[in-house]
Every structure is written in C-alpha cells, then in structure tokens.
Specification:
It is a single chain. This protein has 8 helices and 7 strands; from the N terminus they run E-H-H-H-E-E-H-H-E-H-H-E-E-H-E. By secondary structure, it is mainly alpha-helical. The strands form 3 sheets. A 3-stranded mixed beta sheet has the order 2-3-7, with no helix packed on it. Strand 2 and strand 3 form a beta hairpin. The longest helix is centred in the N-terminal third of the chain and has 25 residues. It is globular. The chain starts with a strand and ends in a 5-residue tail after the last strand.
Length: 233
C-alpha cells in the first residue's frame, strides 16, 4: 500500500515542477483574483467530508465534481510518480522525458484542484499498484491507457453538472490535457489508435463519457481508500 506522502511531493519540488503557494495564487488569479475568488469558493456548498464505514463521499454540485476529479488526479499522479521513479526495462530517454512531463502535469492538476477546493478537499487517498508490473513496458502502457481513457471519460461524464463557469473552464482545460496524454499513450501502444471506436463515438465523432458509478469501480482496484460519489448523477 502506498500513499502520496511528502517524499513524493518533494521529488517533484526538487525538480522545480511544483510550488504549492504558486498554485494557490494561480487559482486565485484564474478565479478572478483576491477576495472575489475566495467568495466564489465560499459560495459553493462544502462537501460532506465525514467518513462513514471508511468511505469518503466526494460531495455534491460543483464541489463534488471537483473532489471527484481531485480523487482521480491523485491516483494518476501516484501512478506516474512510480513510473518515473522505477522505469520499466528498456525505457528510452525520450520515453522517460515524456513520462516525466505527464507526471508533472498530473501532480500540478492534483495540486491545482486541491488549492481550488481549499478546506472542502477530500483527504489524501491510499493507493495500491501491486497488480501492475512496473518492470514491464506493456504492463505500464496498458495501465496508463486505462487511467487516461477512464480519466477523460470521467470528466466528460460530470462536466454538465457544474454551474460555476470558472470551475467548468478549469475542468475543460484539465480534461483537454488528459486527452493529449491518452492520445500519446495509445499511439505508443498502437500507431493511429488515438481516436479509435473504443473511445470516440464514430457516429457523432464525440469522445465517450462515463458516470461516476461506472468510473469508481474501475479505479477501486488501485485504491485502498473507499470513495463514494452518491451525490453526483
């Protein structure tokens, strides 16, 4: 069992990729600066962060969606931190550079959402990647593909719930980066598979979406913390 502890965050900070205070300021500027941004946060209903039967509920409304996204970003960040820290056999310098970039993106997404949520953020989650063979390129790419495809479909499945335009824009900017990750990983596995019929509806040319009730069982195998999104559609 692993958790996102300070040693993992320090790894990123040492490489100049993460500064929590800067992320907080960046969010405040994005939301409208200073007191106006704080007002936006305060206006949203805080999620219920009580733990019942060891299950954390992400909450409802905009805060629930952000916490749901925050949970997924925690998982992805933890995965890529391990990929970079323990490269699979034969990983090239170019591949390591790409995975390092993705790792940094996911950590920044995680910290950006945490800063946006403030005191409404759910706790750090416990993760367990024992089912993934990190020495195998095929296993790592398969897991990465699963995380990225699931992440994109997860954002697509809840964005319509959001009512605050600032939060909706934030989610849109994050999911577009996740889609870039997904395309890259897919093409590492099979050339030109970045938009095949398993992820894009060929009838309407729209990316597929999943509800939280579909996503959480997929990611639960990698979490030691039980997550509920019962207040989200």
């Amino acid at each position: 069992m692993e958790t996102l502890e300070k040693k993992d965050e320090q790894l990123i900070e040492d490489q100049g990729a993460l500064n929590a205070k800067m992320q907080r300021r960046s969010f405040l500027r994005f939301a409208g600066a200073g007191a106006a941004a704080v007002g936006v946060l305060a206006a949203c209903k805080k999620h219920d962060d009580t733990v019942t039967n060891s299950t954390i509920d992400v909450g409802s409304g905009d805060i629930g969606v952000l916490n749901y996204a925050y949970a997924l970003e925690q998982l992805e960040a933890a995965f890529y931190i391990k990929v970079v820290a323990s490269p699979y056999s034969g990983m090239t310098a170019a591949e390591l550079s790409a995975f390092t970039d993705i790792r940094d993106h996911e950590v920044l997404h995680r910290e950006f959402l945490k800063a946006a949520l403030g005191t409404s953020a759910i706790p750090a989650l416990g993760v367990n990647f024992s089912s993934i063979d990190f020495t195998s390129k095929a296993a790592v790419l398969a897991a990465a593909k699963g995380f990225e495809d699931t992440g994109v479909s997860a954002y697509n499945g809840v964005a319509y719930v959001m009512t605050n335009p600032t939060y909706l824009t934030l989610a849109g900017k994050i999911v577009s980066v996740e889609a870039r990750h997904a395309a890259f990983i897919r093409d590492m596995i099979t050339a030109n598979s970045f938009a095949d019929s398993t992820v894009v509806d060929t009838t309407n040319a729209l990316d597929k979406s999943r509800k939280p009730s579909e996503v959480l069982p997929i990611v639960a195998v990698y979490l030691t913390t039980s997550i509920s999104a019962s207040k989200l559609p």
